[in-house]
Design brief:
The protein is α/β, with parallel strands linked by helices. It is 35% helix and 17% strand. The protein has a single domain, classed as Alpha-Beta Complex (Spore Coat Polysaccharide Biosynthesis Protein SpsA, Chain A). Strand 5 and strand 6 form a beta hairpin.
Length: 218
């Protein structure tokens, strides 16, 4: 892989009541936070070791807590960066811009709840960015689990109806408006609902959730 590749992982500190709130309505906040940690552990196991990793965390004051949680599970060095304020589009645009400003040539962002990622799939996303301007990994609910860009533009994230079934379609519309070429990756499920959790949970039985550090919740 080129040294110009950068992988962004968007995470939240895994405190009960702050993560997987839709799932918490059915499982309760403690169980939902545990599910979030287990999902994130599965994602970490799929990351290619050779690609530099930038962990984009929220809230901005949670760096020590997130490092304590994630660092023991990482197979590669990582840097930690606050997501900043604004809606998801603003935070994604900022994270891409910062990565490119730091010298990246191809940037791929992931969430922390798609357990069907593989290192080869991620390597393939970066390989595609050698040929096209963007790659998108759609999820069945109309969102996406992965987005990769070869250059930054806040227009990619403008006017997106986040947390709806229109996210992927609207993102493709923005790419078309920019005149950017793109490639679609295979669809993969990310986990937001109880039905999705019940589908993937048996496959997480061997995945440790990692250490939990949320002192303010104790």
């Amino acid at each position: 892989m080129s040294t110009g590749d950068r992988l962004l992982l968007f995470v939240k500190r895994p405190r009960p009541g702050e993560v997987k709130t839709r799932l918490a309505a059915d499982l309760g906040p403690e169980a939902a936070a545990d599910a979030y940690r287990r999902l994130t552990a599965a994602v970490l196991r799929a990351l290619p070791r050779e690609i530099p990793l930038r962990i984009c965390f929220a809230p901005d004051e949670a760096q020590a807590e997130v490092e304590t949680w994630l660092s023991p599970s990482l197979a590669q060095p990582a840097t930690y960066h606050p997501q900043g304020g604004g809606d998801l589009g603003v935070r994604l645009a900022g994270a891409f811009a910062a990565a490119f400003e730091a010298g990246a040539e191809r940037v791929v962002v992931l969430g922390s709840d798609c357990i069907d990622l593989t290192a080869d799939l991620l390597r393939g996303a970066f390989a595609a960015l050698q040929e096209v301007d963007a790659v998108l990994g759609p999820s069945p609910d109309g969102g996406y689990y992965l987005l990769g860009l070869r250059r930054p533009s806040p227009r990619v994230f403008a006017g997106i109806a986040w947390s709806t079934e229109r996210v992927a379609a609207q993102t493709l519309e923005r790419l078309a408006e920019l005149g950017w070429s793109h490639r679609l990756l295979p669809a993969r499920t990310d986990v937001d609902t109880l039905a999705e959790w019940r589908e993937v949970e048996p496959r997480l039985s061997e995945v440790s959730p990692g250490p939990c550090s949320h002192p303010a919740a104790n």
